[in-house]
């Protein structure tokens, strides 16, 4: 064999040898790996609700979970226990614990829980919810997705709105104003709420919304008339006769009225306006005594005789009139019927000078009664009565003295 062939054969042999060595090594490794894997324990791990198959050379549950990549805390829940020996086909359940701040009706507690959802957490705490209770976040929320749980238990309140019938409502509101808002009750500016809007709501509380309205009421009222009396010598003493009937006046009173639930609770007078004035009633008071005033008729009233020096004396301008004069009615302002008593001696006077009903003595005329008035009789002026126009003409206009007897 020449050197060239020898060299070629050597290289071929070397390559085969390397190949065989590698094959042997791979076979050894593979055999070892298969042998290693075949000694692992097959497990089922349920981690936080997720199921996975896993194999481990660990001797107990703690090491198996560690191999799986789970760090177990003292608050977590593991079944079976961490020190339990592994067995082929074993199922290991790991439920992680979450730190939760739990608030119930204002009281707050922080604790660890292995519940998976908010609903499960509440069940673990034996807390049942009604349709009126409120929980935040929702009961379907995963506990790992929240740090806090807020539960507001509803309680009953007796609510009365205006004149409506009282009703029992369930609420989680903490203040009266929030309660009314959630019940869609609007409170007017003048309305009153008992207790106040900022009061705390408690179980069994009575809340009353009182509707308050303020309005204006105008009331018309009659006003009484005054009675003015005058002495009348033609009437028996003690007898009364209405000369001019009185008339009541009318006023309008403006009130500010407060209504609560439609019922008036207060009324305040704000203004008074006169719509019609009242008219005084004029009443003649009889002063006639048993002695008649001297005159031509036996039916005419009499006055007591006296001397010319008795009483107050006036100098007046005198004219005369009869019951048939223009504009005369035949009846005096004090009610004396001149047509029925044509011989009666009566004078018309200004009541501010000579009081009506006074007994007087008129110079040239005699004793008479101041029983009439007249539109032109003002101040120191009188009008004497005669039953005929001729006697009025004879009297004319003259200055006379008048003495007031009574």
From TrEMBL:
It comes from the Bacteria. GO terms for cellular component: outer membrane. The keyword Signal applies. PANTHER family: CELL WALL-BINDING PROTEIN YOCH (PTHR39160), RESUSCITATION-PROMOTING FACTOR RPFB (PTHR39160:SF4). Residues 287-310 are annotated as: Disordered. Residues 209-289 form the G5 domain. This is G5 domain-containing protein. GO terms for biological process: peptidoglycan turnover. One of its GO terms (molecular function) is hydrolase activity, hydrolyzing O-glycosyl compounds. Keywords: Signal. Pfam families: 3D, DUF348, G5. Residues 287-306 have a biased composition (Polar residues). InterPro entries: 3D_dom (IPR010611), DUF348 (IPR007137), G5_dom (IPR011098), Resuscitation_pf_RpfB (IPR051933), RlpA-like_sf (IPR036908).
């Amino acid at each position: 064999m020449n050197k060239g062939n020898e060299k070629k054969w050597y290289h071929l042999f070397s390559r085969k040898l390397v190949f065989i060595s590698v094959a042997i090594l791979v076979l050894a490794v593979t055999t070892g790996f298969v042998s290693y894997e075949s000694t692992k324990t097959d497990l089922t791990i349920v981690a936080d609700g997720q199921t996975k198959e896993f194999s481990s050379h660990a001797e107990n549950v703690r090491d198996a979970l560690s191999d799986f990549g789970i760090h177990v805390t003292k608050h977590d829940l593991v079944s079976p226990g961490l020190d339990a020996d592994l067995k082929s086909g074993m199922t290991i359940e790991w439920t992680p614990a979450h730190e939760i701040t739990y608030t119930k009706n204002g009281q707050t507690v922080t604790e660890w829980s292995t519940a998976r959802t908010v609903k499960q957490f509440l069940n673990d705490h034996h807390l049942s919810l009604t349709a009126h209770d409120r929980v935040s976040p929702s009961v379907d929320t995963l506990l790992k997705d929240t740090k806090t749980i807020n539960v507001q238990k509803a309680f009953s309140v007796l609510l009365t709105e205006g004149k409506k019938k009282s009703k029992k409502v369930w609420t989680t509101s903490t203040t009266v104003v929030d309660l009314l808002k959630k019940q869609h009750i609007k409170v007017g500016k003048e309305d009153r709420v008992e207790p106040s809007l900022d009061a705390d709501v408690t179980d069994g509380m009575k809340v009353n919304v009182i509707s308050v309205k303020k309005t204006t009421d105008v009331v018309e009222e009659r006003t009484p008339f005054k009675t003015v009396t005058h002495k009348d010598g033609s009437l028996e003493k003690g007898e009364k006769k209405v000369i001019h009937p009185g008339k009541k006046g009318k006023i309008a009173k403006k009130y500010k009225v407060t209504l609560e639930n439609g019922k008036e609770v207060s009324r305040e007078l704000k203004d008074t306006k006169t719509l019609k004035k009242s008219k005084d009633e004029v009443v003649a008071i009889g002063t006639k005594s048993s002695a008649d005033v001297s005159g031509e008729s036996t039916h005419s009233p009499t006055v007591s005789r006296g001397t010319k020096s008795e009483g107050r004396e006036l100098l007046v301008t005198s004219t005369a009139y009869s019951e048939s004069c223009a504009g005369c009615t035949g009846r005096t302002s004090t009610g004396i019927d001149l047509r029925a008593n044509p011989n009666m001696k009566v004078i018309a006077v200004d009541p501010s000078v000579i009081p009506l009903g006074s007994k007087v003595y008129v110079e040239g005329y005699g004793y008479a009664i101041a029983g009439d008035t007249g539109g032109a009789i003002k101040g120191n002026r009188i009008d004497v009565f005669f039953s005929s126009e001729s006697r009025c003409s004879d009297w004319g206009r003259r200055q006379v003295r008048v003495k007031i007897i009574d």
